Amino acid sequence: LPSKRALNPKCDFLVPITKDLLDNLFENECSDAAHRALRLIFHDTIGISPTVGGGGADGSILTFNETELTFPANDGIDDVLDTVGPFFQKYSHVLSPGDFVQLAGALSLVNCPGAPRVKFSLGRAQPKAASPPNLCDSILSRFGSVGFSPEEVIALLSSHSIAGLIRTPFDSTPSVFDTNIFIDVLLKGTLFPGTTGNQGEVMSAINGTIRLQSDSELARDPRTACTWQSFANNQPLMAAKFGPAVFKLSLLGQNVNKLTDCSDIIPEPKTLKDQASFPPGTSLRDIEQSVSLCYCSIPEPPCQPGPPLDVPLCNPQADGGDS
Ligand code: HEM
Ligand SMILES: [Ca+2]
Ligand SMILES: [Ca+2]
User: Is any ligand 1 atom within 6 A of the Cβ of residue 281?
Assistant: First the structure.
């Protein structure tokens, strides 16, 4: 838990705010609210381009939400703002929107077993304008234009290990920040968990999980397949790459030398007991042949006994949000 004081006195005022967010926004769980705050990092920071402008990690998605929520790329962020908005309002006199998004994002991981600790720096200015509506490049070129390698993009997608859509998780272990997303998405798709024909969705391999077309393609793209596979059975590697990649997102459009490092107020996340494995009913032979795990000489994840999984809806007791 956070100590009573921060190492740097400039960060001290964050200690009670941190506690409030952990206790009352995230309810000390890897909750829907936590997933939403994590997703918000991405949708705020990526709004920057070397050619069209935008402030990146500036909190523009909060201040200029009336504009940014009209972008198709930000579908579903209205629910996110409903959840985090009241806490942002509560602290808007002491925390800029950019700092709030990054603080909440770093803290969102604290109750998700297996997540790394993400650094937090303070001092982002107020956003000047909405992000330009330009998010129509391919994922790799969009991230590449702001300095992210294909390896870093895949590392960031580890967050889909605790994520989902329409209350249906992307991997078979949505309550833990493990590497199952990297195994599950490599399995040959056989089913749709709900209706068929949805744009951006492809068949998944496990009852009750949903697969994004973009995750499926990045798992199989020659530029990213080996990185994807390298995480499939390597929790420490994934965690070591994910933390710095998220911190790098938090600095988009910012000058790190003008920020104050307040990382010590972020508690160490819960540890993960079990390592990722093939979900029950699946094994190496269900890996799509084009992306044989042997190709990149990744050690094989263990198999689990038992009948095929049917993953339940995420947090069925939670409120009526649609994600
Ligand atoms: C690289 C391209 C990415 C694509 C195409 C993508 C796509 C999506 C989609 C379609 C959803 C479902 C949203 C909904 O409920 O309406 C989602 C959820 C989510 N994404 Fe991504 N994502 C990407 C990258 C990232 C990154 C970089 C992060 C975090 C750093 C992230 C974190 C999340 C989280 C935490 C959720 C779950 C939200 C919730 O459960 O409420 N995603 N993503
Ligand atoms: Ca922004
Ligand atoms: Ca997981």
Answer: no
